[in-house]
Amino acid sequence: MTAPDDVLAELRALRAGDLPTHGGRTLAYVYDSALPGLDDLAAQAHALASSVNGLDPTAFPSLLRLENDVVATAARLLGGTPATVGTVTSGGTESCLLAVLAARESRPDLGPASIVLPETAHAAFHKAAHYFGVRVIAVPVDPVTFRADPDAMAAAIADDTVLVVVSAPSYAHGVVDPVTPIAAAAAARGVRCHVDACIGGWILPHADVAPFDFSVPGVTSMSVDLHKYAYCPKGTSVLLHADADLRRPQYFASADWPGYTMLNSTTQSTRSGGPLAAAWAVLRHIGEDGYRDLARRTLASARVIRDGIAEIDGLRVLGEPESTLIAVTATRDDFDVFTVADEMRARKWYVQPQFAYRSSPANLHLTVTAANVGGEAELLADLRDSVRAAADAGPVRVAPEVVAAIGALDPSSLTPQEFAGLLAAAGFGGDAVLPDRMATVNTLLAAASPALRERLLVEFLGTLYS
C-alpha cells in the first residue's frame, strides 16, 4: 500500500500542471466566487454525503430533503410557482438531455420527432438529438445581434416538433434570446418551450434584461447550473419543469427483470450524494443577499472589461452581451485571434478560442466571474499587449497545399495515416502532446469543415485516452 501522504503528494504534483481554478485567470471552464472558506465548506459537505447513494431516496431521506431544498431555491429565483418541480442533475448537458427526452416521450403518438432551436443553442441539444433520435431544426439567428429570430423560430415549428429551445444567454456570445415571443409561438402550437439558462440562471435575475423565466407564458422548462454562477463544486445542475405532468416523461422505470424495479429520475442510476450535499451547503451559506451581491459585482466587472475591450485598437465585442460572457474578434487582418490567445497564455491568462461559424467570425470567449472584480485593469493591459505582440508576429500562415489537403479529406473515411499526417503538420509529436502555442493548430482546425473538425478532434481525443 502507498501511504496516504504520498498519494496526496502525487496528486498535488499532477494538479500543478493544470490551469488555475482560482484567481480569475482562467476565463472558461471554471467559476470562482473568490469567497474565502467556500471550498472547505463544500469539501466537508461533500465528504459527509459522498458514500450515500441517491438511487433510492427512501433509503437515504437526507438526500431527498437536500434535493427538494435545492430545487425550491432555484424555482424561487426563476419565477416558479407552487406547481414547479425539478431534478438535480450532474450538469447542464444532462439537464438539456432530459429536457429533450421528456419532450420526446410526451408525444408517443409521433414517429421521429423534431426540436427547433436557434443555431446559437448549446451543442448539448445536438447531443440530445443524436442520443434520442430526434431531428434538429436549427434556425439562423440575426447576423449582427446573434439573437434568435422570433418569426423564423415560429415558422420552423412543424407538426412533429416537441420542443422549442431558447438561450438565456447563449454561450458563444452572451446574448439573451427574445423568450416572450418565441414561447408564445410554441404555446400557440401546443409545443413545449425550454429556456437554457444553464450559465445565466443564477445571474440574470439580477441583471436588467427582458423576462426569460417561468414568469413568461409558454415557458415549460428551464435548466440552470449550480456549478457555474451559484459557485458550487462541479457536478450539479437543476432541470425545472412548470409542473409534475411535464416532468413525468423524464423518469425511467423498469420492472421487466428479476431484480429490484429500477426507478430513475435522471440518466444516472447510482448517484453520489456528495455533489448534492456540497451544492446545498454552498447555497445555504451564500444565501439570497450574497448571490445578489456577487451577481451585481460580476456584471459590473463584465461591463468594465467590455468597455475596455472597445478601446483596444484591433478588437471588437461581438453582439451586445447582456450577462458575463464576452466574445472578442479582430477588426484588422494584420494579426489573428488565435495568436492573441497564445500571447495571453504566455501572460498566464486562458481565453477560449471559438471558430468562425456563419456570421460569427473566429473569436475569443471570456467568462467573467466574481474573481475578476478588481483585476480588470491588469486583464485589459495584458490583452492590449497581446494584440500588439500578435500584430508584430503577423497572422498564422498555413501553406496552400496543406489547406487544400484538409479540404480534400473525407471525414467519413479518414485513415490513421491521414490523421497522423495532420498531427505532424500541426506540430504534434508522436505522443500527441499539445504544443506550447496553439495558433497553428487552431488555424488548421479553422480550415476544416465542421464535420471534419469533429472527426479530427474525436481521433485526437482517442489518442489522448490510450
UniProtKB/TrEMBL annotation:
N6-(pyridoxal phosphate)lysine carried by residues: K228
Keyword Lyase: yes
Organism domain of life: Bacteria
Keywords, comma-separated and alphabetical: Lyase, Pyridoxal phosphate
Matching InterPro entries: GrpII_AminoAcid_Decarb, PyrdxlP-dep_de-COase, PyrdxlP-dep_Trfase, PyrdxlP-dep_Trfase_major, PyrdxlP-dep_Trfase_small
Molecular function terms, GO-annotated: aromatic-L-amino-acid decarboxylase activity; pyridoxal phosphate binding
Lyase is among the record's keywords: yes
Cofactor(s) named in the record: pyridoxal 5'-phosphate
GO biological process, one term: carboxylic acid metabolic process
Pfam family, one: Pyridoxal_deC
Protein family membership: Belongs to the group II decarboxylase family. Sphingosine-1-phosphate lyase subfamily.
Protein name: Glutamate/tyrosine decarboxylase-like PLP-dependent enzyme
Species name: Saccharothrix tamanrassetensis
